[in-house]
Every structure is written in C-alpha cells, then in structure tokens.
Amino acid sequence: MAAQTQYEELVRQLSAFSVVKRDLGRITPADCSPGSAAVLALLGRHGDMRMSNLSELLAVDMSVTSRHVAHLAERGWIDRSPDPADKRSRILRLTPEGGAVLAELSRRSVALLAERLRDWSDDEIGQLIRLMTRLRASFGDGRTTPHRQPPPQPPPPPPLHETTRTPA
Fold this sequence. Notes:
Layout: H1 4-16, H2 18-26, H3 34-46, E1 49-50, H4 51-58, H5 62-74, E2 78-83, E3 86-94, H6 96-116, H7 122-138
Antiparallel strand pairs: 1-3, 2-3
C-alpha cells in the first residue's frame, strides 16, 4: 500500500490537473461550452438516449442537462424527438452538424495534447492512458460510488480512570 505522503502528493497533482482541463476547455468554439461539449461527446460515444440517461452520465442535475440540451438543439447540433415508448420523454440524437462539431472538438483536443506532450515517448503516453483508465475505474462510472469497506477504525482509547467496583 502507498505511503500517506504519496496519497497527499496525488491529491495535489489531481487538484492541479484543472490546468489541463481548463486548457482543453479553451479550445472549444465560442458557442460551445465545455458542458455542451461533454453532451456532444456522450451522444457521440453512447448514441441516442433519453435526457434522464444523459443527466445520469453527466452526473449533474436534470435542470443543468436541460440547459445544455436546449443550447445544443438551438444550434441544430442535436435533435430531440418523442420517445415512442413514453411520449412524455424525449430521445436525444446527434445531428450531422453536431457530429461535425464533435469531430472538430476531437481534432482540436488531439492537436493540443500532441503539442503539449510532444516530448513524451509513445510508451509514456501509453502508460499514462493505462494508469488514468485504472484510476477512473477505481472510482466507478460517476453515477454511483463503488462499494468499499470503510477503513478500519482504531479501538477507542482506554478510560482515564478505571474504577473497579466490588460487589457489596
């Protein structure tokens, strides 16, 4: 098991990782926020889905998902159609225009990473991918917390003054 200091350093590094996410967010088109880009990416990866499924995958409230979906639908990047199984629900689908935006986002992300990691070897990049995949798997899919046993608790300290009673 890793030493406490290693976990502390890992916390610092993960906190500092926001710089990477920020730079990736900066390359999105002006009318496509990082949240909207995440919606496009999930629809591109998982295909058509209900808004409730999308909200679950994003791990955000339905109202937040609804705002992203409305924004993307206004631009013609996704389509919302009635769910044949439940007319109250909508099925979200990536449009060809949305697919083109997603392809451009992917191209920009790959170019940024290629530029920033140009002095890394293929083996180092492969190792990073494997370790990040493993780290992410340790946390589950974001929808639920993986079941873990709580850490063992130390026994309670002995009482300061222990008096023994003798039967009367």
